[in-house]
Amino acid sequence: MSDSTRIGPPAADVLRVTGVSVSLSGRQILDDVSFAVGAGEFTGLIGPNGAGKTTLLRVILGLQRTAAGTVEVAGQRHSRRNPAVGYVPQKVLLDPDLPMRARDLVALGADGHRFGIPVPSRARRDAVAEMLHAVDADRFADARVGQLSGGEQQRVLIAQALISRPKLLLLDEPLANLDLRSAQEIIGLLARIARQQEVAVLLSAHEMNPLLPVMDRVVYMAAGRAASGSAAEVIQGDVLSTLYGHHVDVLHVHGRVLVVAGTDDKCDSDDAAFVTVPAREAS
Amino acid sequence: MHRIYGWVFEPGFFASQPVHVALVIGGVVAVVSAATGVFTVMRGQSFGGHALGDVSAAGGSGALLIGFSPIAGFVGLGIVGAGVMDLIGVQRLRSRDLATGIVLGAAIGMSALFLYVNTSSDATQQILFGSIFTDSSATTGVVVILGALALATLAAICRPLLLATVSPDIAAARGIPVRLIGIAYMLTLAVSVGLSSVATGAILSTALLIGPAAAALRLTRRVSTAVLAACLIGVAATWVGILLTYDSYYWGSARRLPVSFFIVAVVFAAYLLAGLCSRWAVSRAATATVTPAVASPDQIAA
Hints:
The complex is a heterodimer of chains A (283) and B (302). With 283 residues, chain A is of the alpha/beta class. In chain A, 28% of the residues lie in helices and 27% in strands.
């Protein structure tokens, strides 16, 4: 919602998703999804569990076949191994006994796809140190990466994704399982990196409130469909009702936004009506 | 001084031709097993490694029965076994256990049959518990060549393999063919296990694969250091085991004790010692500094 970044002619889109549909074993996961992300923009991919967020990210990465539609990254039809895209998947479980320091994992982000034994070089070491510094990870750069806290591991994974100097950084639920303070720190860090390194950030989350202060754009997903625009444009009752396919209300409570399901035939009592949509969809 | 030397190295140790062959084969096998083992432990495929040992046993006993050199069967059927395990589903965590168990059961059954049909009294001992003192120089050449091949493959794929081990998702997004890398690794594992079947026998190949690697992983935070440490521990254990076996002839039994027993015993001792070292280092780091940064022995050793 920081309108200051929108001044002047719109920057060239770094990501353009057009009419993407995906079906998995007869079930439609994505239904005609279209949106664009401008260079250096911070975009939240918001929606309840099961809305298709992870599938959409996998499509952008070229890991998921589509039934229809196109994905362009930095003006090129996307294929795998595009160095313009950095990726932090969800639920990366790092074994505490893994013999790997935080800086070793970041180095793998730079050249993990290459064959042969790595040749140590000053340039490689410096690049790794710079990335660790950019995510405030200098303090635990030499610790075993599996023994770090969740927030610390996220920082290392972000550095790992950034070291190939991507134009687009995809993060799949990076705030899940983080305490509130760590989540705020990660959000602030990503907003700073998006600005300083001119990397567009596309971050999926089921909870939008912590992201509201930093998002330039929202892609809201429900039931495989998506709506995009500024938060003010998208987070509205009629827009979201169309996405969900049933009536929802958008409530503003002390600066927080709640998306609430309206009464429908699944709810027996009036009490059950006031359930936030994410919680209901998840169950 | 001379008496202690003579007590450690019983007469004729360094002049003995079988000892020379054993030291070379044992050294090569230990290095290949230890280097492969570090990745096996990291990927959580110890059980798979053991199953390949049993497949090796079936291959070795089968080869012996039809008059081939056991090493052809050890390695050959091991590679087939690795392929079958991949087909059944070694890639997925849940079906991995299943694939391993099915292959392992079938392999042991085949070994039982082949060893029963073979009327040579040495066959069982040779296949299951190794034949490092009776191997020919021709076997040495095959072991060295296959060992070099396995190490070269491991060196070539180490980075993609590592990234795929840490996170298959990140690896796939980077364009790494995760499945192919996994298959290449399983084939390397099969060759490695086949080679150690020659030294310690098919059943105890797991000890050389997992033991040194597990001990090394207790001592360091870096994969490169872990591989080096595992190789050192593996070679030391194998050579000390060979020495003790040779010496055991003079211990009054007038019969050599099995070499695989001594190697495995030394490996196990190294594992326990590494555990003590890492505990001691952690506690020392915790008391020495106010800020107990995640401590590890190599930090102290450095």
